[in-house]
Amino acid sequence: MHVLLCPDSFKDALSARDAAAAMACGIQRALPEARTQICPLADGGEGSLEALIMATGAERRQATVQDALGRSTCASWGWLADARTAYIELAEASGLQALGPAERDARITTTFGVGELFRAALDAGAEKVLLLLGGSATNDAGTGMLTALGAKLLDAHGQKLAPGGAALADLETLDLSGLDPRLKTLQVEAAVDVDNPLLGRRGASAVFGPQKGASPEDVNALDAALGHFADIAASVLGKDDRDMAGAGAAGGMGFAARAFMGATLKPGIDMIMEQAGMAERLATADLVITGEGKLDGQSLSGKTPIGVSRAGKAAGKPVVVLAGALGDGWQACYDEGVTAAFALADGPLALENAVARTAELLADRCESIARLWHGAAKTAETTAPPLKSRGTDGM
């Protein structure tokens, strides 16, 4: 029996790597002879860099960059030398989790540090960058990144704009003449797990701004400022990507990646599975087990268990999903290739107890799955009709 274990992280409880290890422990308890293959995954959000590094064997590198508030911080990025490919996770430089609740201010946070990570990758000789856009603290439409890469954003007096999205209301001149020339030949793929446009009721400011510290008044001002930036960008570039699905990802970083880098935007889980060689892994698997904190109807928008299940369905492999909770509409996941889904809890549990016991519960559920699989296989062997003898019917 060959079991492929490819969970996402269980938020506030286990990393994807630790979740996969717990799953493997349970399988081995029931079937010591089983072969388990661990492949932690993510959907482009938190933990995606770790998943890519583990799945591909990429080198983890460090760079000193600015965080979302302009302070010095150490950020990780991945380097796959043979493929000349860099993995850049926006949240490593400009992540929301690095800021305390009182520090979150969508008006002034910047993606400058992401641009510094791009420079580090280019200096290493990168020909391709996979940009992971989840978990941002920013709402600057990627202008901080552009500034770090040599662009100039000036006001009516020829002065550089202050960092952040709010300052874009004063933008008069967008000068791209100093933009790093190496970007012209750099291939960029950006992982997005939302389809929001840059502006409007479903835009970056309105949907994601409040969780980054924006008041209702800030949201309106930021939306107008990003719209002004988009107007000027369109006049400079001769194209307008503001309405593109995913343009609003990571505070408008999806817009910047597409408009200024020609990036291809794609679901994060698809990107990470491709890098992890999921097709080859599935080909040799008898059973696939995946999971994350919650499975519900919203998971169909591109969450890891559904991406795995769709790939498993295409390969003709059974996929079991283990989730901390099964929410509204989870049954729709059966249509996406989920063979079976189970919640982890073994009885009524307070949230803090469930979080503390996540590894134990994952191992227990996987042990039960392995026992069921083994029992079904033995039953199939004993009830199968005998093979017809050859050589008795003229053959």
TrEMBL record:
Stored Pfam families: Gly_kinase
Biological classification of the source: Bacteria, Pseudomonadati, Pseudomonadota, Gammaproteobacteria, Oceanospirillales
UniProt name for this protein: Glycerate kinase
Organism: Halomonas cibimaris
Transferase among keywords: yes
Recorded GO MF terms: kinase activity
Keyword tRNA processing: no
Keywords noted in UniProt: Kinase, Transferase
InterPro entries: Glyc_kinase_flavodox-like_fold (IPR018193), Glycerate_kinase (IPR004381), Glycerate_kinase_RE-like (IPR018197), Glycerate_kinase_sf (IPR036129)
Family label: Belongs to the glycerate kinase type-1 family.
